[in-house]
Amino acid sequence: MGRQISEKVTWVGKIDWRLTSFHGNELSTARGSSYNSYLVRDRKTVLIDTVWQPFDKEFVARLREEIDLADIDAIVMNHNEIDHSGALPELMRAIPTVPIYCTAKGEGIIRGHYNEAAADWNFVNVKTGDTLDIGESTLTFIEAPMLHWPDTMFTYLSGEGILFSNDGFGQHYATESLFDDENDLEMILAEAEKYYANILAIYSKQVRGKLAEVLDMGLTLDMVAPSHGVIWRDHIAQIVERYQTWSQDYAQNQITIVYDTMWNSTRMMADALAQGIRSADEKVTVKVFNVAEKDKNDVLTEVFRSKAILAGSPTVNYGFTYAMGGMLELIEGAHLRGKKAAAFGSYGWSGNVKAKIASRLEEAGFEIVDEGIQELWVPDQAQIEEVRAYGAAFARKVAGEADGEREQGEVEAAPPAPKYACKICGFVYDPAKGDPDSGIAPGTPFEDIPDDWSCPICGVGKENFELLE
To answer: Which of 21, 218, 236, 348 is packed most tightly, with the most Cβ within 10 A?
Structure first.
């Protein structure tokens, strides 16, 4: 049964209470989720988005209870990942000629997902500013590429003042109470932050630009209706403000310690580091997580909140542990900026781990404040005191104290060649790495790349890149 959310709009989605992981096993969803689909009824009737494929038959059956499918005049697909478009094949078997409004990228993704089933579907490609007159109201389309796929767009319903924002402003949160003011605000804001940190943080630059664009349009926003979680109607300004904050190199006064351990040596170091940090700065929040035991997405959310992190591991096979390797991969993938870090570890006969972790953190965009610390075998009391002292010194450096002066006569290293980011997908060209798959050797400055080079992710030309701030 549908749920009326405004005079013209009915929620026809699916609440998934059993969902515990998303994107395969990449994202934990301890509080479940929802797949929000909306039916807009004016002189024309429009369905906005569908649900995940496992619920396709249920979705279509419930939609038939709400409306004669033959009365649907158009389908709007704001984004075409399987959790949004999964019921399309089942629905289109019943109404095969109904036009599907989506971006050009969206059409390509739908065809790529559903192959022969989508061969004869009636696609209408739209871009920012295009409209669909449905009677008293108008649907206006706003492209939002890389929030978080290339095909993403928002749809605005005039008259009702509803922005259908797809993944933007969403949360993985199951609730029978559809609105923000009917739920625990702190809980849904926490889920919104986790969603942002794990899915959208990599595209913060695009988030900033799209927020500014939408706000500059002067739209009346009475509701923001995402595709997952609650619909915002009472705290719209608050969630928009959070997005503005999160997208601006976000950091609280927090230092997070992430580590893995084999025989507790590295765990002992992590605890001592936390004690040292607190001894130097009583106001800073310190959190400590064993990455082999703690939910990886919750850890990444804490890293997202932090102004600095310490990452540690025992040396295993001349490197770090499997769990730490996965955590470093998640951290690098989030493209966090404006944060500081250092590495620590324990070892027996090979002390490579500290340098390897520091290298990965530097590649991830963290400022490495010093060479870190490592201890041989199980640290005794004297070593523990050394680690505490290092933690205190790290806290002072992060706070901007005791940075020291450059030794007299020391030559300052030449600054690295600037990086450039694709304005469409956010891919960062790093001159130090080059693009070997395209024949661009490491060390090649952006300005020396041939003019016919294209982005290896989304394929746009060099002219679509801009200097990374």
So the answer is: 236
